[in-house]
Amino acid sequence: MIDQIETAELHGQPVLKLQTPDGAVALISLFGAQVLSWTPAGGEERLYLSPQAIFDGSTPIRGGTPVCFPQFAGEGPLPKHGFARNRAWRVVSSRAGKDYAVATLRLEDDAATRALWPHAFAAEMSVSIGGDRLDMELAVENTGDTAFSFTAALHTYLKVREVESLRIEGLRGLEYRDSADGDTFKKETGVGVMIDDEVDRIYHGAPQTILVREDHRALGIHNENFPDVVVWNPWEHKCAQLADMPADGFRRMLCVEAAAVKTPIELAPGADWWGRQTLVAM
């Protein structure tokens, strides 16, 4: 019998390893509650983790699925993507069955977070694997006595064989904000979005399911309660400026992120919210 949930280390940092009897495996960093690796049963690695990622317990890790909270990118006064991705989370529950393994990690406000963002909150990241699917759910509760608002994303780095050979299906007709072109608003006209240059787009009112199709495989991406989808690839010039990415790393990755950006989430005291992204390997 395999130990389906165990604590391990990756580059000297603590991780939680989930595995199922059918062969699905995921690694979750306790730093940032970040899924770093996911291999579906009988398949191959589907998340990109930069071989030059920094594992020092304070620098955000390049790859996997960073949790952006309580701010996406530079959409406010906080450090880029907020503080959740470079904070230590604690494991609060885990369980496994014959065809699944799931763990939940929790982050609560403290003096350091309140110095940046003066609100009482509790955030939980739940990760479940089994068969050909990975489920990631971010839940946020307002534990204080005043309302607050936030933006958030699950900043998922997909591992691809060749970024120029794939296409993203399901975005046609959507309005998007093109951050690579001065934050101009455009409408997606292509049946499939191709990547042949820098792409940094926030699609609004996205459908629940989109598909990333490669030559001999595909990945279904199902988002719940996240109204936006971010598509990002830094391409050659910007990738070369990233110290924690190899020069050709942009060819092996594509970020497709479940996000709530255009309309911030408003939470009254005692209220909660959740958003989920599910990846299905095909």
From TrEMBL:
Record-stated family: Belongs to the glucose-6-phosphate 1-epimerase family.
Superkingdom assignment: Bacteria
Keywords, sorted A to Z: Isomerase
Name recorded for this polypeptide: Putative glucose-6-phosphate 1-epimerase
Catalytic reaction annotation: alpha-D-glucose 6-phosphate = beta-D-glucose 6-phosphate
Keyword Cell division part of the UniProt annotation: no
Gene Ontology cellular component annotations, sorted alphabetically: cytoplasm
Top EC category: isomerase
Naturally occurring in which organism (per UniProt): Zoogloea dura
